[in-house]
Design a protein that fits this description.
The complex is a heterodimer of chains A (about 270) and B (about 120).
Chain A (H helix, E strand, L loop, with lengths): L2 H26 L9 H29 L3 H16 L2 H13 L2 H25 L1 E6 L4 E5 L2 H27 L5 H26 L3 H22 L3 H7 L11 H4 L15
Helix pairs in contact in A: 1-2, 1-8, 2-3, 2-4, 3-5, 4-5, 4-6, 5-6, 6-7, 7-8
Chain B lengths: L6 H13 L9 H12 L5 E2 H8 L5 H13 L4 E5 L2 E4 L1 H29 L2
Antiparallel strand pairs in B: 1-3, 2-3
The chains are: A mainly alpha (about 270), B mainly alpha (about 120).
C-alpha cells in the first residue's frame, strides 16, 4: 500500500475523465459539422471513448492494487484489454477517411483492425497473464503470449502510427495558414501521443516507465483538447486567432485615394 | 501518344485561378485550351478548326483568332505556318509545361482542401 499507487490511480482517473469529457464535447459539436466531416468526427468520439473505457478499469485496478485485492486487479486488467484492443479501429478509420474520403473503403480496412484486435484478445485470454507484480508505483502484468504481443505491436500500433506520421507529413509539406496547420496537426500529434504511450503503458515491465507513459497519455488528452478549443491567450501567442471582420461602409471604402481625389480610376 | 483535353477540368482550373485574382494566363480558359491543343500537337500543324472544337463553348471565332494573334503569335508561343494552321514553338512548349504545373498545383490544393474539409 503506497501513495505511488494512489497517484497512479489519480492519473488514470484524470485520463478517464478528460477523455470522456472530450468525447462528449466533440459529440455536442456534431451540429456544427457538415456531412463530409461527420464520419471523421464520430470516429474521433469513438476513439476518445475507448481511451476513457480503457483507463476507467485501470483506475479501479490501481485502487485494487492499493487495497491489495489481486482478484479485482486481474479482472479489471482483462476488462481494460477489451476497449484497448479496439482503439486502433476508429483511429484507422479516421485517418483513412480523412485522406481518401471514401467511407466504405475506410470501413472495410478498419474492419481488418477489428480482426487484429479480436485475434489479440483471443490469444491474450487463452494464454493468460503472469502477475500481478505490485510495486510502490503500479501493478504490472506480463502477457503470456509472444504471438499476442507481436499482433499487438505490428497490427495494432505500428500500422496506425505509420498512418498518423504519413498524414502529418502530408500536412507539414503543404503551405497553409497557421491556423489551419495548428487545427489539423495538433490533434494528430495528440492522438499519436496518447496512442503510443498507451502501448508503452500496456507492455512495459518497468513501473516508473508505466507511470511516465500514463502522464504522457494525460498530456496527450489535454493537448487534443487544446487543439480543438485553444484558449484566447494561446491563439494570440501563436498568431492563430480568427478575427471577426466587419465590412466597411461604402463611404469608407471609397476613401482609398490619399491625394483626396475620390473615385479616381486605378490603372491595372 | 497525345493526351486528351479535359475541358471541364480546364474550366475548373481556370475558375480556381480566377478566384485567386489571376484572370490572365492560367486563369483564362481560352488561353488554357488553345495552349493545350497546341501542346498536344507538338511537332505537327494545329488547325484553327481543331482549336475551335474546344473553345467554341466559351468564345466566338473572332476572340479566339484575336487571342492567337495578340498573345500566341505576338509573344512567340506559336507560329502561323499556313492559313488557319499554327505550330507551337519552344517558348510555347515552356508555357505548356507551366500550364501542366498549374493543373498539378490545382489538384494538389484541391486534394489538401478536401482533406482539411474532412477533418472535424
Amino acid at each position: 500500500m503506497s501513495a505511488g499507487l494512489l497517484l497512479n490511480a489519480t492519473i488514470c482517473f484524470a485520463i478517464t475523465i478528460s477523455s470522456f469529457a472530450f468525447a462528449w464535447v466533440l459529440a455536442q459539436s456534431d451540429s456544427q459539422h457538415n456531412n463530409k466531416s461527420r464520419p471523421a468526427l464520430w470516429s474521433l468520439i469513438a476513439l476518445w471513448s475507448l481511451v476513457g473505457l480503457t483507463y476507467l478499469p485501470t483506475t479501479v485496478r490501481m485502487i485494487a492494487a492499493y487495497m491489495d485485492n489481486q482478484q479485482l486487479d486481474l479482472i479489471m486488467y482483462y476488462i481494460a484489454s477489451v476497449p484497448f484492443s479496439f482503439v486502433a479501429v476508429p483511429l484507422v478509420f479516421f485517418i483513412l477517411y480523412v485522406i481518401i474520403g471514401d467511407q466504405k473503403i475506410s470501413s472495410y480496412i478498419s474492419l481488418l483492425f477489428v480482426l487484429f484486435g479480436a485475434a489479440y484478445l483471443a490469444l491474450f485470454y487463452s494464454s493468460g497473464v503472469i502477475g500481478p507484480t505490485i510495486t510502490p508505483l503500479t501493478s504490472l502484468f506480463t502477457i503470456n503470449s509472444d504471438i499476442a504481443i507481436n499482433i499487438y505491436l505490428i497490427g495494432l500500433f505500428v500500422i496506425p502510427t505509420a498512418m498518423i506520421i504519413g498524414l502529418l507529413f502530408l500536412i507539414f509539406l503543404q503551405r497553409m495558414p497557421k491556423r489551419l496547420r495548428y487545427r489539423t496537426a495538433l490533434p494528430l500529434v495528440a492522438i499519436s501521443f496518447v496512442f503510443d504511450f498507451m502501448l508503452t503503458d500496456m507492455i512495459t515491465l518497468d513501473d516508473t516507465m508505466q507511470l511516465a507513459a500514463r502522464i504522457f497519455v494525460l498530456i496527450g488528452t489535454v493537448q487534443a483538447f487544446l487543439a480543438y478549443f485553444p484558449p484566447m491567450t494561446l491563439q494570440e501567442k501563436l498568431g492563430i486567432k480568427k478575427y471577426e471582420y466587419i465590412l466597411c461602409e461604402k463611404e469608407e471604402e471609397e476613401d482609398y485615394d490619399e491625394d483626396g481625389v475620390e473615385g479616381s480610376d486605378i490603372n491595372v | 501518344m497525345s493526351e486528351d483535353i479535359d475541358v471541364k477540368l480546364e474550366q475548373e482550373v481556370a475558375e480556381f485561378y480566377q478566384s485567386l485574382g489571376i484572370h490572365q494566363g492560367p486563369g483564362d480558359i481560352q488561353y488554357r485550351l488553345i495552349l493545350k491543343v497546341l501542346g498536344k500537337n507538338e511537332g505537327r500543324i494545329t488547325e484553327f478548326s481543331e482549336i475551335r472544337e474546344y473553345t467554341d463553348m466559351f468564345a466566338d471565332k473572332g476572340s479566339i483568332g484575336s487571342k492567337m494573334k495578340t498573345i500566341f503569335q505576338l509573344e512567340g508561343l506559336a507560329e502561323k505556318v499556313k492559313r488557319g494552321g499554327y505550330i507551337i514553338t519552344d517558348k510555347g512548349m515552356t508555357a505548356s509545361n507551366f500550364l501542366k504545373d498549374t493543373t498539378t498545383f490545382y489538384k494538389k490544393n484541391k486534394r489538401m482542401g478536401e482533406i482539411i474539409e474532412r477533418m472535424p
